[in-house]
Amino acid sequence: MFNSTMDGDIQKRSKILLLYGSEYGTAYDCCRNVLYELYMHFHIDFFCLNDVNLMSFYRYENIIIIVSTTGYGCYTHNMSKFWKDLHKTNLVFYDTMNFHLFGLGDSSYDNYNIVAKKLRKKLKSLDANIVNYNLGNYQHPSMHFTNFNIWKANVYEFLKKNFFHFQINDNIPCLFNVKHVYSHSKNEQQKDNGIKISQKEEITANKNGKTKIKKSNSYKVNTIKDDNVTTPNDETNNGKVSVVVNVNTNKYQAKEEQLEESSTNIRGEINKVVKKLQYEYSNLEGKKCYDIYENNTISSDNIITNYADVSIDEYFCKSSNFMKFEVLKNEKCSDESYHQDVRYIDLIAPTRCFNVSDLIKVHPFLNEEKTKNILNLLKINYNDYIIIIQNDHVHCTNNTFIPVNKKIKILDLFIYFLDLNKIVTPFFFLYLSKKTISDIHKKKFLQLADTNNISDYFSYVYQDKRSYYDIFFDFYNYIKIDVSFLINTLPSIQERCYSILNTIDSYYFLKNFNFYNLYYFSTNPNFSWIIHFLKLNYYINKKKNALNILSSYTYNIMMEKMIYSLKYTNIIRNRITQNKIDIIELLVCLYETTINKNKKCVGLCSDYLINLKPGSCIYAKIENSLLCTNKNILNLNYRIIYISIGAAFSSLLGVIRHRHYLYNRLDKNKQKEKQKEKQNEKKNVYSSCNSFNKDLLFLGFRNRLNDFYFQEELQNYLYFNYIFVAFSRLERDNFLFYNEEVQKCSRDNTYNNSTNPNKYFETRENRIIQMNYEEMKQLLKEKKKLYVTDLILMLQDMIYEHLKNINTIILISGKSRPFSQNLIKMFANIIKQKEQNKSMEEINLFLKKKIDDFSIILESWY
């Protein structure tokens, strides 16, 4: 326990801001490691970078930042906002503000740790005092741990020299206290962390305040137990007395374990308990729970007020600022027998909340059955309720989603908030070593926790991707852990991002219809001839200026119907628009990795989304993607080159759909202009179409039957796109020039000619491809496996021209590890062949500049 001296020291603690930018959780775990080792001695605020404002940096003496580089040199999702704000600011940091920066990256990429390097450079330009800086490399034999330990030791040494000497905490962290709320009934098995009862006794109070003890065959109790409070030992009761009040029956029940009837002292304490409870009774409403631990007596401080139950909806939507989306459709894109599970999911959005190629950031939940099984093995009653309370002796603020000061079911806590599916970190084994009585397993845990020699950890955990689920399943017989331990040591569930396929604006493009004729629908078809007669009579008499009674009657009917038609049309338009806008479309591919013949790992969020049923709900936020950084992707004067593989193509579909909408709107405007202009001006309108340039779309899939996503929809976009497709798993017909294929089938009446709405675009485009379909096939026929990079090499002359054109934007989308890097190297080689006098350094600098100004956007899926 903390003494008063330590309480006073808390107020003098130096403040540390601990920040992370993490994509898959490594930087987040490194920050948790620092937090657990320092929280006893410093006031620490622990957040992701997106959750802090740059101005808040001035409140701290030490800012510790750990960032990862993802993909081909991209910053992570949870630091994207911070990154943009940092590069816009002109702030100057004080000399007294000490920055400690650590980067995580993979040296197999050309842009190794580029985010940490750029962050350091930018902070330096703002006069930041960076006192500790280091980089961790996943390709190192000891992974990132060696450099992380060196950097961490330097940070701690700096804090000791400049503030005060302290001991690094290696005990189990205690950021939260846990109070249990039990609700047991007859014949219910008592859990190890519950109240063990060998003989049930009921203590009641009569009107005079006297007590009597009687044996009872039934037992029902609600009580709270604090896992984090230690009490003096007592020979008769181990220092504990549990009391519950049942207001509905006007009885006071109490239980004492191993109560000796001859103990007059205990009986005296019970009388005091009853009197205090009688005094408090008038203020009670319903059932309330009491926590009695201190010196076997009750004081007013021990009486716990009612805690509200956690409402999951309210907590996510109000406290955590998530939005609730309902699942409208969840369908498999391919045949049910196909091995890869890719789903087309429709979500009903609460508001119009997204733009072109925005991301939906989903908070996934754990698998319920799997979680129940693990909690059973750990002998934790998942049906019990607990209250999580911030440790008063700890000055630590974080952005964890764990609900505090509310009553929550243990099962709900794990399913919604704690990530048992994540790969275990080494420092967790240090805490497990303190929860086993087996010397053999304690030694094993300490070996796994040793980051100076990670051979055991690498072979047992990292290589086989063992999660907390797996560790608990392997060692549940040799460890004794409770809910408090898990809350204080497990990571929180992190959100995952997916690209939104549709756009809002594209749904405003509705087919024109004459709403003045809608009044026909309200008339019986047998009397439609009367309508024609009345209209004819009205118009004839109107021209003669001789309106009769019948004509006036017809006029009134027409005006009434026209007003009705206008209202009806607006209702229809609003409903169509509203229904479309409220839908978010996703393409979700199950992430699955085969570890060995007996084990497969699946991604937490993809598995969660794929198993959703229509009518269920998810909690998510909407964020901007990298595509939003270059507004010219919506400028039709710019040509877009799309390069994508697999399901990652979904991140580009929103751009294609929106450009389709823009072309249709442009076509409608030009048609209106044609009607107003003279004949010679019409020629100018058509000549403006001569400058129309098609976009280029390069796609790579495994096979055509099951993997060619949105194949039919893409036919509608052929009028402004050239589409080339490579199928890597097909030996024959592994190349497709979609435009030629559709045109050929159209001649054979296989496709409907209506798929191309703007015919004049087809004939008046600037054709930039200098070879025909058959020539392309001949060039590629020797390829046993055809990839999208082969298509780019085939058309390298055209690619070179567009690389040098300032009005070209290249969007690359693919999660395959070397995909983006190989493309950039290919671009460099293409330029080198055309400009042999230039060095590779100059060429790489040219490509780097295009990446920095977002003329080339890599990892567009992100």
From TrEMBL:
Family annotation (InterPro entries): CysJ-like_FAD-binding, Flavodoxin/NO_synth, Flavoprotein-like_sf, FNR_nucleotide-bd, NADPH_Cyt_P450_Rdtase_alpha, Riboflavin_synthase-like_b-brl
Regions crossing the membrane: none
Enzyme class, UniProt record, top EC level: oxidoreductase
UniProt KW keywords: FAD, Flavoprotein, NADP, Oxidoreductase
Coiled coil residues, start to end: none
SUPFAM superfamilies xref list: Ferredoxin reductase-like, C-terminal NADP-linked domain, Flavoproteins, Riboflavin synthase domain-like
Annotated GO CC locations: cytosol
Residue ranges of domain Flavodoxin-like in the record: 16-156
Cofactor: FMN; FAD
EC number: 1.6.2.4
Pfam families linked: FAD_binding_1 (PF00667), Flavodoxin_1 (PF00258)
Protein name: NADPH--cytochrome P450 reductase, putative
Lineage of the organism: Eukaryota, Sar, Alveolata, Apicomplexa, Aconoidasida
Gene name, Swiss-Prot/TrEMBL: CPR
